[in-house]
Amino acid sequence: MAKCVLTGKRAKRANNVSHAHNKTVKWQRPNIQRKRIWVEELGRHVRLSLSTRAIRTITKVGLVTYARKKGIDLAKLAE
What we know:
Layout: E1 12-17, E2 23-28, E3 32-39, E4 44-51, H1 52-61, H2 63-70, H3 74-77
């Protein structure tokens, strides 16, 4: 299943509700992208599955800062 490695976003189960109030199951899937990002501290590229929200945040604050804030070790993700 698609999952963002930084935010943990994954598909949610929800209901389609008709006018007659009949409920059918649907899945709300996050927009997960495979990105190759240069990490200066490691001196190499890292390929990650990220949500588009995480990509926007990484663009703004940087990958290392964002991973440190979330308590994630990039060296383990890079393997």
